[in-house]
Automatic annotation (TrEMBL):
The keyword Plastid does not apply. Residues 388-399 have a biased composition (Basic and acidic residues). Residues 302-354, 381-422 are annotated as: Disordered. This is RNA polymerase II holoenzyme cyclin-like subunit. SUPFAM superfamilies: Cyclin-like (SSF47954). It comes from the Eukaryota. Residues 53-152, 165-251 form the Cyclin-like domain.
Length: 422
């Protein structure tokens, strides 16, 4: 006999995983990443607002420019999309984001100086501590450890945007008054309390802040919608993105009015009425969705799937799924086990392979296509001759005699029921 045997070719060394940095992220991707790491929506809003407020207060105390604030908040949002809230304290993450931003923007501050400024904001002047105090030894080590994770979460992407420059340029081109520009400037700072900076460009956020400022102050609205107003096409944006950004700001002012700069200065009814008008404009005239590029989940057996965690775009060029404790897991869930410890979680992003960070998605895709053929599992079938021993046949002893039993017929008999004799 010649049975067929399958042979598996031995794979080469483990391929490195490529993390492609994403400068823009859609709202649906943001929601999927938050659901993938098991974030509680209520806690997410509170931690996000408290972390951004912490960054703003400390950078004001240290007299840092607004560009450092924008960079720090951007890294803070990126970090929270990858790591669970239960793995760190939001002040530590905010301090690590501000430390990273100070190095990127060349406004150098040590971790101890940032922690000392945060501490001095909460106590009286007689209890102020210097940055050299030993009370900041442990916190400083945690912040330095989170700094590396902050860079990894962003994919080592240093392409930071400064929308306030575009806001001032757009306000000068349109001819807005100083009070409108000042309100729009503060709205831009409030906008960083939302996820809009991860989704929109600088021009889109500038148009949204200036338009909402004119509606709140009820003046110079013709300069943003009139015949001589700046054109969206020139600034490489669209009406859909501007409306989405305006609604993000109005959501902040209607739900978290006290956690903003512009919100407490105006009544809640004004923001609610403006939100109703913007929703009517988006629904009636242009039939625009609340979020751009939002797709419903696919139908399975005729029913809409409730799964909100498809393969996340955290690592587009990496394997789609890995095994963690015998279960399938997304690369987005592989986060550090503790704050500042430097130990990564188990799985593809931890111990099995090296992670390389790239900015060009096309280059990463071409590299993956070239190297994928060297790491595929190939099976080859071939025949092998095997000698099998012949089993001996049973001896033939002739016909078997009939069973005699005890001389009586062993077949079952049936008797009628009879009455017993008396």
């Amino acid at each position: 006999m010649a049975p067929q045997v399958a042979f598996q070719a031995q794979a080469g060394p483990h391929p490195s995983f490529i993390h492609v940095a994403q400068q823009f992220t859609f709202q649906q991707q943001l929601q999927n990443q938050l659901v993938a790491i098991g974030t509680n929506p209520t806690r997410e809003d509170n931690f996000r607002l408290q972390g951004v407020q912490w960054i703003n207060d400390v950078r004001t105390a240290l007299q840092l420019p607004v560009r450092t604030y924008c960079t720090a908040v951007w890294y803070f949002h990126k970090f929270r999309l990858v790591h669970k809230d239960s793995e760190y304290q939001y002040p530590d993450a905010a301090a690590a984001a501000l430390l990273t931003a100070c190095k990127i923007e060349d406004t150098l501050k040590k971790s101890r100086e940032i922690l000392a400024a945060a501490h001095n904001l909460k106590v009286s002047a007689s209890e102020h501590l210097s940055s050299d105090d030993s009370a900041f030894d442990g916190s400083s080590k945690v912040v330095i450890g989170l700094e590396r994770l902050m860079l990894e979460a962003s994919g080592f992407d240093f392409r930071v945007r400064y929308p306030h420059k575009h806001l001032i340029k757009l306000a000068r081109e349109a001819g807005f008054d100083k009070d409108v520009t000042r309100v729009a400037y503060n709205m831009m700072i409030d906008l960083y309390r939302t996820f809009a900076p991860l989704k929109q460009s600088c021009a889109t956020m500038s148009f949204a802040c200036l338009e909402l400022a004119t509606k709140v102050l009820e003046k110079q609205q013709e300069k943003i919608h009139g015949k001589h107003a700046p054109q969206y096409k020139k600034w490489s944006t669209r009406r859909a993105e501007v409306l989405e950004t305006i609604l993000d700001l109005l959501d902040l002012y209607t739900h978290f009015q006290k956690s903003s700069i512009v919100g407490p200065g105006h009544s809640m009814d004004k923001f609610i009425q403006l939100k109703i008008k913007v929703n009517q404009e988006a629904g009636e005239g242009q039939s625009l969705n609340r979020f751009t590029e939002f797709f419903d989940p696919p139908k399975i057996n005729g029913f809409r799937s409730n799964i909100k965690t498809p393969k996340t775009p955290v690592t587009p060029a990496s394997p789609a799924e890995v095994r963690v404790n015998g279960k399938d897991a997304s690369p987005a869930t592989l986060s550090p086990r503790s704050s500042g410890s430097g130990r990564r979680g188990i799985g593809a992003r931890g111990q099995d392979g090296t992670v390389r960070f790239m900015l060009d998605a096309e280059q990463a895709k071409e590299e993956k296509d070239i190297t994928s053929k060297y790491f595929t599992e190939e099976w080859e079938e071939y025949e092998v001759e095997v000698e099998e021993p012949i089993k001996p046949e049973k001896e033939d002893r002739g016909p078997r005699p009939p069973y005699r039993g005890n001389g009586r017929d062993d077949r079952p008999t049936f008797h009628q029921n009879k009455r017993p004799r008396r």
